Amino acid sequence: MPPSASLNYGGDSAGLICGYLLGADAAPREIYSAQAAQWLAGLQAGGAALQGQFLWLHFNLSHAQAMRWMERHADLPEAFFDALKDRSVSTRIERDDDTLIAVLNDAHFDFAFEPSDIATLWTSVAPHLMVTGRTRPLRSVDALRTAVRSGNAPCSSVALLAELMRTQASGLVDIVRGVTQRIDDVEDALLAGRLDHKRARLGVLRRLLVRLQRLLAPEPAALFRLLQHPPAWMGADDAQELRDSTEEFSVVLRDMQGLQERIKLLQEEIAASVQEANSRSLFVLTVVTVLALPINILAGLFGMNVGGVPLSDDPQGFWIIVAVVVAFTAVAGWLALRDTRER
């Protein structure tokens, strides 16, 4: 292994994170940017690749040399570089002549259930070359790299793309399970009467699911066009694998939609509980205000510095006023409590 590849996690001198020469009749062989350039140069010069062999190159697009290397050696279509510059990153697979251009979205390697923990993977698939590129470490492509390194490699570039999408679907299942567990915890806390800040947590989870569903749902029209008119080099088995992988996505996305509805119901229940608690607090405040009203009125009247204040010369005047205040307060309290019992 070249020293640059072993010391730089972001890729070798060309930004290549990993490269594998794959084929149906041979074990995966790891190669580096210099070897990949030689292999591609021989292929472009008219040399035929060995039967069933193809190359997978995975690049770190944050590396300054990655784009230059791909432009110089990989002979990728302009549509791939246009997709890198396009602001639309919704998941899609499109055909450009004899090349498939795929824009996929995946969870970060250190996914923490935040809406921002989603990044894009750009892919170009040709008969003898599959190129993937990302700017941040992603879960699914790392799992695929581990599987290929262990010898579990598909026998064609389209099958490798389909395996990548299935790996993404499996990762989404794990995310859905994690979100479900968090929703269960919030629901248990709600039933136990411990609200805390659970509504804010539910909002974060709902935004995460909405973002995942918006970014990860494959565009049906583009996929339909591709499967109806696949490239000539794509076999029927490869097309079926691609169709199956997208159906797995659809199942997970339906589960996400169900979770969104469940979160919405929990948010409404929490909002209703908060409103009920606020109503109780407001009622207590109203009762206290009503009970204090007779005292405030009488204190204001008898505290005026004018002549003719009643009971001012009576030795029992203070206790008479106290009795009047208590009577008015008892009547006001009885009226308030009666209205509460009727409601």
From TrEMBL:
Transmembrane segments: 282-304, 316-337
Compartments, record wording: Cell membrane
GO molecular function term, any single one: magnesium ion transmembrane transporter activity
InterPro entries noted in UniProt: CorA_cytoplasmic_dom, CorA_TM1_TM2, MgTranspt_CorA/ZnTranspt_ZntB
Recorded superkingdom: Bacteria
Name the UniProt record assigns to this protein: Magnesium transporter CorA
One of the record's GO cellular component terms: plasma membrane
Annotated PANTHER family: CORA FAMILY METAL ION TRANSPORTER (EUROFUNG), ZINC TRANSPORT PROTEIN ZNTB
Main location: membrane
Keyword Glycosyltransferase annotated: no
Protein keywords: Cell inner membrane, Cell membrane, Coiled coil, Ion transport, Membrane, Transmembrane, Transmembrane helix, Transport, Zinc
Source species: Acidovorax kalamii
Pfam families per the UniProt record, alphabetical: CorA
Membrane topology annotation: Multi-pass membrane protein
